[in-house]
Amino acid sequence: MLGGILLIFILFLISQILFSEMARKHKFFDKSKMNYLFFYHFFFAGVYYTYALYNNSDSKLYFWRPQLSNESWFSFYGTSTTFIDFLSYPFINFFGFSYEMMMAIYAWMGYLGFVYAYLFFRKNIPIKIKVFKGVDLLTLILFLPNMHFWTASLGKGAPIFMGLMMFAYAIGEPKKRWGILLIGSLITYYIRPHVFLFIAVGTVLGYFTGKEKIAFWKKAMVFIVMTGSLVIMQDSILGIAGLQDSENLVEGFENFSEDRANALSSSGSGVDMVNYPLPLKLFTFWFRPLFFDAPGFLGLIVSVENLIYLFLFFKILKKDFIKFLKKSPISVKMSLTTFFLASLAMAFVMSNLGIIMRQKSMVMYFLFFVIYYYLAQKKYVSMMIRKRKLEMLKKKRQDEIAVAYSIE
């Protein structure tokens, strides 16, 4: 326990060094808010740790598995669960990290995900947006409790969230941030290869359809790099669903998703989504559990957050949203494509509300980004119209004064 507390203090000091560098590059960077976020996130790390002490938790398995094996470090090298063991192995076996220290280091990874999410939002959207009668939208998004709970422990949730947000932040200026982009890409691929597929497709689509004027050779380079990466990694990606040797990928995925959904629906918080129509599958993945089907006390807390998601989603159900999408930049189209493809894939295989609560924390920030950008764009247009009206009114008054002065 003492080692974990000491490590949190050290990680806080390391964070200050990182913040100084980030503040040097971005004048908008708010160290104070990030420090509040640090303590907020580690509060949920403490909540999860307490929960894990009295309940079954994958974090315990992730801690013991690298120790119980007599195999070498690189025998764990691989994708999915194996990669978490590979990542944890040196901390546990070389540096002697305790369970509490491993929980702390992974919670810090999750926290860095929120820091990069903050950079991703603020770098692309300088306008502040208020929702729900005066609540700052970015602050609301950054402090959603369910997001912190599932990214504050030893497991896949924290590093995959960090990898995705690093990728989202870096892809805006890949030449300047290639190191962050590479790290984010590798983390995402090794933990969840299929999610890397989604962000790769989203990036290619964004670069080819975004409103920015980008040289053809740059678009071609993005297409070649992303397509080449997918070709190289196709066995790992398809292997997640056991489809690497399948002759019919569509039929193979349908069989896999049905088997997976049936298996998950048999658990205590399962829902029979197999026969749901697609819109209801997506609604379940995005917004359930709600109060009527919340699995336990934690489910009730999550229901409040899901209701916030729902209210935010309603804000883009407008006639001008499609028009906005057509003219939107790379970041918006990449985010929406990634969010929708990931949602579509997981909605077919997830039939357990507990797992849904955890899995969707990976991709909901992409939806939040689209909502935020849409609202900021509307506010910007409104500000420009108001500014023009004021300028016209000011000019009219000046003309009237000039006329009156000439008459005198």
TrEMBL record:
What keywords would UniProt list here?
Membrane, Transmembrane, Transmembrane helix
Q: What is the lineage of its organism?
A: Bacteria, Pseudomonadati, Bacteroidota, Flavobacteriia, Flavobacteriales
Q: Which organism is it from?
A: Christiangramia lutea
Give the protein's recorded name: Uncharacterized protein
Question: What superkingdom heads the lineage?
Answer: Bacteria
Q: Where are the transmembrane segments?
A: 6-23, 35-54, 74-92, 104-121, 154-172, 178-208, 220-243, 294-314, 335-356, 362-381
Q: Looking at the keywords, is Membrane present?
A: yes
